[in-house]
Amino acid sequence: VALASVSACASVPMATADLDVQGKRFQAPPPGKAAFYIYRESIFGGAYSLNVTMGPRTLGTLAADTWFLVDVDPGQYDMRCNAPESSDSKIVAIAAGETRYVEVAIRMGLVQPRCAVFEVNAEQGQKAVLGGKRAQEIR
Length: 139
What we know:
139 residues, alpha+beta, five-stranded mixed beta sheet, four-stranded antiparallel beta sheet
């Protein structure tokens, strides 16, 4: 059973290959805007996907080694993940011209996985994005 749960992978709608390549260029956000990369790396819990929201806006679902790129107005955002057994959130402030990296991660729960949200530095975030694929966000 353990081997089956490790090898099973959740699937989510994916962005086009062009959008994946474009996001991996790490270009500055449009004038007057800011950018969030929200990603999930995982060797644990690959059979589960995580729902991700930013304030009242639902971004979509992240599977293992997937990410979103979202251009936003400067401000404070409640970044939230939802897993079968829990949810977690972190308020992240962002200014015009900035790019921030937020990881949503699977954590072990009693019966099913939990999730956690935390901000990481650009080096760690870019490495994760380069190793993953861009998921399609809900519009």
